[in-house]
Amino acid sequence: MNVHEYQAKAILRKFGVPVPDGHVCYNGASAREWAKRLGEGPWVVKAQIHAGGRGKGGGVKLARTSSEVQMIARDMLGMTLRTHQTGPEGKVVHRVLVENGCNIANELYVSLLVDRGSSRVTVMASTEGGMDIEEVAANTPEKIITEAVDPLVGLTPFQCRKIAFSLGLKGKLTNKAVKVLSNLYTTFIACDCSLLEINPLVVTAEGDLLALDAKFGFDDNALFRHLQIGDMRDFDEEDPNEIEASQHDLSYISLNGNIGCLVNGAGLAMATMDIIKHYGGDPANFLDVGGGATIERVTEAFKIILSDKNVKGILVNIFGGIMKCDVIATGVIEAARQVGIQVPLVVRLEGTNVELGKKLLAESGLNIVAADGMADGAQKIVAAVAAAA
Ligand code: ADP
Ligand code: MG
Predict the structure, then answer these.
(1) Residues labelled as active-site residues
(2) Residue 350 in 3-state DSSP?
């Protein structure tokens, strides 16, 4: 799960990481009032969408007067912001953050993430903070330093100083950096984060450190421990099909192709997508119904796949271990009755109650292509989609 910048900053503030004072606003008039309340200006008006690159896309603007804040906020709210992270369709701005502008002397980059290679939380830092960290990573990776954290000991003051030195910080700034880094680590652990990125972390002309931008990724499996973070979820920012799926405890991932995949288990999902690609097709999504799905859940799952306009064919690939093939078959038939299937459907079933499952499908009157094995299923759906195009 992700949150907006203003929510991320509220969390950071709680953990003692310095951030500019600011407030979220939903209309121009309140943006103007909040600006006056925040101080003398200048202010920065920032579009709140779950994507970076806003600065370059026109989603971060400086205002010198409170009327200017109002005008900028009014224009920004409702606009479709396109950045290199939103894709060409962009994202509609529903909220803006009005915050105090600061005098930037230097922009740094700091992030914490779980490095799967070393199985450790790792701090990444760079002097090249600001808007182009992806380019730094691609062209001058030596400018990014990493420091792995021992989970038993935590991020030590020694490590923090080492990072601070490599960022070129001196004197009082070193101590400030040690505090910021160690508070960021505390935040990361306390909130069960998968990612915490501050870009930029700025040194101000007054000699302070300030987190000017913040991005969090939270481990969804730990969200039950963080009700307040869960409440920050903004459904406007998420794929409606993924929301619908999560409400039925289904894992749904939307992709760019045109073949919908109903599978059980993450491994089978990966293999199914690989084999579709192998035979020249492109998955539109995959929906993992998991182990013990009920008929109702399978029905919902199938409805979600059918509601995706990009889906030009569906491959059901189920290996019934815990999951029973007759339950899958009944769900498919039920969903088809409720919403109708206009696209080719290939079904490959194997495992528990497979004969019963196949019989149900055969007697359903639905136009289903049965497949023997994964390769056969993939070839058949790729061919059917190509023929229909
Ligand atoms: P994004 O990463 O989406 O482009 P940022 O929040 O990082 O958005 O803002 C982009 C740039 O705007 C920053 O690198 C910084 O130079 C400037 N900026 C952002 N917030 C402020 C602020 N409060 N005061 C001064 N400059 C800011
Ligand atoms: Mg940024």
Answers:
(1) 109, 197
(2) strand
For the stretch 328-385, pLDDT in tens is: 888 888 888 887 888 999 999 998 999 999 999 989 888 888 898 999 999 999 999 9
- CA-nearest residue for atom 10, ligand 1, is 55
Q: Going by CA atoms, what residue is nearest to atom 24 of ligand 1?
A: 101
pLDDT per residue over 235-257, tens digit each?
A: 888 878 788 887 877 888 889 89
With a cut of 50, list the residues of the chain below it in pLDDT.
Answer: none
CB of 55 within 6 A of ligand 1: the answer is yes
- Following DSSP, what letter does each residue of 93-120 receive, concatenated? ---EEEEE---EEEEEEEEEEEETTTTE
Please give the full DSSP string across 167-236, using - where no structure is assigned.
Answer: TT--THHHHHHHHHHHHHHHHHHHTTEEEEEEEEEEEETTS-EEE---EEEE-GGGGGG-HHHHTT--GG
For β-strands 60-63 and 43-47, DSSP reports them as antiparallel
State the closest ligand 1 atom to the C-alpha of 83, by its place in the atom list counted from 1. 3
